[in-house]
Amino acid sequence: MVAYCWQTGVIGFGPRVPQGAMLIVGGAGKKFRAEIEVMARHAYDGATLLVPGIPEADGEEAKLEALDKFIDWFFQRQLKKTAIRKAESQEFDT
């Protein structure tokens, strides 16, 4: 499964990136989708997910910068979670 967004910032999920959409990240399972949903901005309708910064961005360069920040944030969160899990699984001398 991949997460992608349109130039409006609306996030979608599917087996591939539709023509005209931009890839956010690929992953598997409900946890992957849930992670994106937690990080996304929620539209007023309560159902639409948005990449933060894209809807209000002026121009394509600003939209791409907002997308890059969102992707970086996603991977930083994943690295932190991995480090925490690794630390929790190790035994420490007390």
List the helices and strands and how they pair.
Blueprint: E1 2-5, E2 11-14, E3 22-26, H1 29-39, E4 41-42, E5 49-50, H2 60-89
Antiparallel strand pairs: 1-2, 1-3, 4-5
Which keywords apply here?
single chain, 94 residues, alpha+beta, three-stranded antiparallel β-sheet, two-stranded antiparallel sheet, 44% helix
Into which percent range does the helicity of residues fall?
Answer: 40-55%
Which ranges are low-confidence, i.e. pLDDT below 50, for 5 or more consecutive residues?
A: none
SSE run: EEEHEEH
The radius of gyration is 16 Å
Strand arrangement in the largest pleated sheet? 2-1-3
Helix/strand-derived category reads alpha+beta
Q: Can you tell me the overall shape?
A: globular
Q: Helical element count?
A: 2
Oligomeric status? single chain
Please state the average pLDDT score: 89
Q: How many independent structural domains?
A: 1
- What is the number of E strands? 5
Distance between the terminal alpha carbons, to the nearest Å? Answer: 43 Å
Described by strand count, sense and barrel closure, the largest sheet is:
3 strands, antiparallel
Strand content: 15-25%
